[in-house]
Amino acid sequence: xxxxxxxxxxIIGATGNIGKYITSAILSANPPVARxxxxxxxxxxxxxxxxxxxxxxxxxxxxxxxxxDLQNAEQVAKAYEGVDTVVxxxxxxxxxxQIELLKLAEASESVQWFFPSEYGTDxxxxxxxxxxxxxxxxxxxxxxVRENIKxxxxxxxxTGPYIDMFLRFVPGxxxxxxxxxxxxxAAVLGSGNEKVGFTSMRxxxxxxxxxxxxxxxxxxxxxxxxxxxxxxxxxxxxxxKQTGTPWTVDHTPxxxxxxxxREGWESGSPVATLFALRRIWAEGKTLYGKTDNESLRVxxxxxxxxxxxxxxAVKGEPY
Length: 319
Ligand SMILES: NC(=O)c1ccc[n+]([C@@H]2O[C@H](COP(=O)([O-])OP(=O)(O)OC[C@H]3O[C@@H](n4cnc5c(N)ncnc54)[C@H](OP(=O)(O)O)[C@@H]3O)[C@@H](O)[C@H]2O)c1
Hints:
Elements (H helix, E strand, L loop, with lengths): L6 E6 L6 H9 L6 E8 L1 H4 L5 H9 L3 E4 L5 H8 L4 E4 L9 H10 L5 E3 L20 H13 L4 E6 L4 H4 L11 E3 L4 E5 L6 E3 L2 H13 L1 H4 L2 E4 L3 E3 L1 H12 L4 E5 L1 H14 L3 H12 L23 H9 L5
Parallel strand pairs: 1-2, 1-4, 2-3, 4-5, 5-6, 6-10, 8-12
Antiparallel strand pairs: 7-8, 9-11
This protein binds NADP nicotinamide-adenine-dinucleotide phosphate.
Organism: Monosporascus ibericus
InterPro entries: NAD(P)-bd_dom_sf, NmrA-like, NmrA/Isoflavone_reductase-like, PCBER-like
Pfam family, one: NmrA
């Protein structure tokens, strides 16, 4: 989108955890950011009964659904025809598939802008980031872009952890942190005073729209954005305020988390990724002197507050 010219956007991974917020935000952007919005999705997702309500509501907002196989170059090239902007929200296991998608974008006649799937922890926060196992596939994608993608511009939207997910316990990993309004119990890492920069899932969608509105700021950048910065203890306080009663809080020593992480990597358990990310967040690696919120013209009042997200959790609303 060059300034006032509206985009033709193709979204990949649109119905996933974060893709659905990004797609909904793009479709309902006011003023609009796109003259046309399509999604490229697998036949399995397109026919999945649990996705029909969402797909129908998007179609009623003008969305086009293209069914196909991401690994079929011909189908992807066809889906790219006339598209100037590709937004990928592929899940972790599909991150490396983006290398072929980027090659096809570079070879296409129309694609000029590509958002690889990030929307999370800063994978180039400091010198230690390059060694973090959960970052490796995203790092490979960034390296591929630096070395091979010359014509198409890329934007990475770095949001830190989603507060909506952080508020929930992950079954089997309760010690890594979480909050349960039913039992009024919380688990926090260490003292619980270390602040973390969070983004709500709805705000991730807003930031992607803001990036689309400001190509001059967003192109060729890893944008660091967040809704707010808060400590786990402050989250407990907000839950206590909203539920009107004190909560029981367990503290997991960081050494214990490190041990679970080590065991997880050694046994090849997928929860190792969760433990590693929780450690990175507790180490303060979501904090910045200055974010890109302002350069994207996103103000504090445009964003969700902790109290709103806690209210949804207290009501038991799913994210
Ligand atoms: N900051 C955080 O707290 C946080 C939390 C979760 C995720 N994230 C990040 O957000 C991004 C998207 O993650 P997500 O959890 O939203 O994704 P997801 O729901 O697991 O998957 C999104 C979509 O990707 C498509 N896909 C195609 N091939 C795939 C493959 N081989 N493996 C997985 N998905 C495949 C599927 O859509 P189709 O069937 O339509 O092709 C799927 O619905 C990732 O970069 C992830 O690291 C961040």
